[in-house]
Amino acid sequence: MIEQEWLQKPPLGVPINWGHLHSTRQVGCYLLNEGSGSRVNDLSGTANAGTLGGDATWGIGEKGPHLAFAGVDGRAALTYSNPFFDCGLAPLSVMAIAKTSAHAETYGNMFRYDNSNANGLFGLRIGLGKLQFLIADAARTVASVSSTANWNDGNWHSFVGTRIGASMNVYVDGVDAGNGITTGADKNIVAASAALAAIGALWNSASSAWTEEFIGSIACVYVAYEGWSPSTVQSLHIRPYAMFDWPRLWAVAAAAGNWLRSPFDAGFNVKNPVYDYGWQ
Fold first, then answer.
1. Residue of 22, 74, 39 lying closest to 203 (CA atoms)
2. What's the CA gap between 11 and 2, in Å, rounded?
3. 114: closest CA among 181, 42, 30, 212?
4. Helices assigned H by DSSP within the chain
5. Which of 196, 184, 55, 169 is nearest to 113 (CA)?
């Protein structure tokens, strides 16, 4: 039995199961499963929804609906109606499922919270081919950690950055990918009211231009005020949508070719359906 991976992504309207351990302290949860329109929903309950702009478009592929960026000014600008991204010294984790074959000599944001001129920031990006996670305090003193290998290979990966106390690290596909745990990450992230958050390009008010425009595709983004352990990161890589209440369907390789088996197929055991509930 072969799982058709994109079927794991919950359809539009499926909520988080708040009883699941991976839903803990979510402050930004973007499944990017809308597939059309200009709105990007935030399922975390913190009302940090987004609006598409620039060259950001909807795509469909092996990861299901996703956002595609051409590297000009594409972004989902997130509403900053409350200070939920001002995490101070709290533990912090950011995850994005994305792919790019660009940024060998540039930087592309997958998620960024910043006010461009002063105060705190944090972000997850591909820079000079590597995964980078960065944090800064009100004095713009930056701490960052990068992967040792390049990850702009054009394939889908789960990218994670974590901050726990004074330590930070990055993971790719559930595996520690950093150049050693970086210390000095205990930056007090408090931003001004002019702060912006975005998936993709971020507006730089100092230069009046969009900066660090991502080139590639992003399937989902999670932001949590929790320092994910290595085992949690691995679990989220294996089952990134486990915190959502919905049954996953499976793709079955039939002799005549691949086909999807659903509860409506002849011979399906309705009394004992082969559902794999991601939230269990």
1. 74
2. 20
3. 212
4. 230-238
5. 196
Parallel/antiparallel/unpaired status of strands 64-70 and 50-53: unpaired
Mean pLDDT for the stretch of residues 138-159: 91
Query: Which of 118, 135, 132, 139 lies closest to 204, judged by CA?
Result: 118
* Residue 271 CB contacts under 8 Å (≥ 6 apart), including other chains: none
pLDDT tens track for 44-83: 888 888 899 999 999 998 888 999 999 989 999 886 655 5
- Of residues 90, 85, 80, the one with CA closest to residue 187: 90
> Which residues are bridge partners to 178 per DSSP?
147
Q: How many residues does the chain have?
A: 280
C-alpha distances out from residue 57 to 6, 45, 70, 218, Å: 18, 25, 9, 11
Question: b/e for 40-57, b at 16 or more Cβ within 10 A?
Answer: bbbbbebebbbebbbbbe
91-127, pLDDT tens digit by residue?
899 999 999 999 999 999 999 888 655 567 889 999 9
Q: How far apart are CA 6 and CA 63, in angstroms?
A: 4
